[in-house]
Amino acid sequence: MSEESSGALRAASNVLVLAPGVAGGGIDACTNLLLDATDRVDRLAIVAVGDSPAAWHSRLTDRASGLLPPISYIDVKTLVRSTEADTGGGDVPVPVATVSSPADLLTLGKSINSLLSDASLDGDRVGLCVHSISEMLQFVDREFLFKFLHAVSARVRSVDGVAFYHLDNEAPDEELQIMFAHLCDTVATFEGEQMDVSAGYYAPTGEESES
Q: How many CB atoms are closer than 10 A to CB 158?
């Protein structure tokens, strides 16, 4: 990673992560970004839609070069993961909030807000990951999901956190990528082992975006 790219990520509050959804590309990209952020956050929070908390925990602990900060998981069930046993690393030794479906945005929003509020009260900075927008779009209309994540991204900014939102960059919908880039100040695009960092389209109230 270049110094310029590293600096852009370190200054970011909300990052759209464009990475392949197959072969673990998305979870790999998000894992690397979260681990890179552990020197500037006090807690990690994972919204696990496509992969189980056990799989996430296994990947984070396997790849970490040192001690990890406390990790909380919001386990968002899908039809597949509701009917099949979770695999990927055994018990998760951290609290897990459970949401019955990606369509239950009210419960999910309350769970995310609770994690961010608790951390803020303790003076802790949170690194949040939503994995994945692509999975959620199978259950939620894009307009509703955009409004939901708009509220989440604003909350992240308000508590000086940093959040990563994965979207499959192999889906042929450039309009979708542009849409969610309006929530983020930074976009990290992964192609194989290469990462390109660019500006998102987010503009504070009163400023114009460059869309």
A: 11
Tell me the pTM. 0.91
Number of domains in the chain: 1
Structure-block tokens of residue 113? 């807000």
DSSP 142-159: HHHHHHHHHHHHHHHHHT
User: Are the CB atoms for 178 and 169 separated by under 8 Å?
Assistant: no
Q: What is the CATH number of the domain that holds 122?
A: 3.40.50.300
Number of Cβ within 10 Å of residue 184's Cβ equals 23
In the chain, DSSP finds a helix count (H) and a strand count (E) of: 8, 8
**Residue 206 belongs to some domain of the structure:** no
Other Cβ atoms within 10 Å of 12 Cβ, number: 23
Q: Among positive and negative, which fits the CA dihedral 60, 66, 67, 68?
A: negative
DSSP letter at 194 equals E
Q: Which domain holds residue 150?
A: 3-199
Rounded-to-integer distance, Cα 178 and Cα 188, Å: 13
| Neighbour count for residue 153 (Cβ, 10 Å) | 24
Instruction: Give the model confidence (pLDDT) of 2-14 as tens digits.
Output: 666 777 899 999 9
pLDDT, tens digit (0-9, with 9 covering 90-100), for 165-210: 999 998 778 999 999 999 999 999 998 779 999 999 997 754 544 4
Mean pLDDT rounded to a whole number for the chain: 89
- pLDDT of res. 79: 73
Task: With respect to residue 207, please indicate whether it lies within any of the assigned structural domains.
Answer: no
* Cα–Cα distance for residue pair 77/48, rounded to 1 Å: 8
